[in-house]
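Friendly challenge for the regulars: who can give me the structure tokens for this chain first? No prize, just bragging rights.
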Amino acid sequence: MNSAVLLVIPEIRDLIRDGSSEDLAAALAPFHSADLADILEMLEDEEAVTLLHSLAPIEGVEAFEQLEDSFQVRLFETIGSERRVKLVALMSPDDRADLINNLPQNLVAGLLSQLPAEEAKDVATLANYTEETAGAIMTSDFVRLSPEMSTAEAIERVREQATSKETIFALYVLDTAGCLIGVASLRRLILAKPEDLVGDVMYPNPISLPVETDQEHVAERLRHYDFLAIPITDDAGRMIGIVTHDDAFDVVLEEQTEDVQKMAAVEPLEAAYSDTPVITLVRKRAVWLIVLLGAGLVAGGVLEFFHDELMAYIALTSFLPLIIAAGGNTGGQSATLVIRGMAVGDVKIEDWPRIAGREALSGLLLGLMLGILGYGMAHVMGQGAVGTTVGLTLVGIVTMGSLLGSLLPLLLARLKIDPAITSAPLIAGLIDILGIILYFLIAKTILGI
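First reply, four minutes later:
Bragging rights claimed.
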């Protein structure tokens, strides 16, 4: 957040309460729409409505589009019906569709009936696409060109439509059926001769994606090709929209947030943390905590199974936390590295033999290092009799942790399950069980108990 926003809030509140709309607009003039959105979210609902009314229509829409979904809906319900229609009419198609999807149905019906027929149809179309697909995040605002146009005519069309389109740096050339046949950059049009045809200066064989493409893949393709926008086509090959880089950035942020939450053994939150009710937070966290509690109970059962061995050599107890922690931490590291590698396309499912080899070697080397340290610690603590058991167990459990942590995400991906659920706590729970079994089997062999 811009630090100036925090400093200006008291002045903004005073102007809302005692000042004129002109004074308020003048105080807000230096701020970017993203800063205006931050200011709106720091105000009470009634104050935010007053501020929104004081802004010029375009500025108000740009700030409104950047609000968090929950606050956007709450603010929208507070403003008058006439203002709602004007606001929605000026919004970009993709943001408008997102808002419609988040609004109560009784409000949506009345709103759509007041919009112009073409815009209402566009909203209904975009709002019906499957969530988390290209269709759900695309906009239908793009500049359409014909291959028979001269570059002078194309530039004039861009000039006429620039204020109402999402981007004008990439221009799309369609045939009479609406199918995408080329892309023309604004730069290329400007550098061409006025009489040159768009079909002669466009880039043929453009890259596009189907409307049902997963949004994460869309973002990855935009990153890979370094595009500002990527065309989206329907089943018949007709171009129906574009996904821009800013929407792709939002997707990446959303997906990364979900992955971090899953890896912390939390079901992904639908809203921002601060907007999520406590009961929802409890429900989202409880499921995995119960699963991990079950893993802990199994580990306790294994420990009970080796009760006699533990009583016969009580010194083994001192090193049990060390054994468990080393395996769990190693497994969590491996899982994190592999899951992130899969997310950026560096690791693929078919790479599992190479991954297994790398992690087995890494685990063995780390295990040897920790095993030597564990052996030394046992002697320093005056428990030299169990030093070899501790050292060998560390070698084994760290190697197992590396392999399990790296291969489990790949296995889940093969089964079409999100690998991010292989959270560090889950890996640790599994390694706890294996570590206890390995520890006491080695102790029985070496110590003869």
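Residues 65 and 95 are 7 Å apart (CA to CA). The chain has a mean pLDDT of 87. Your move, everyone else.
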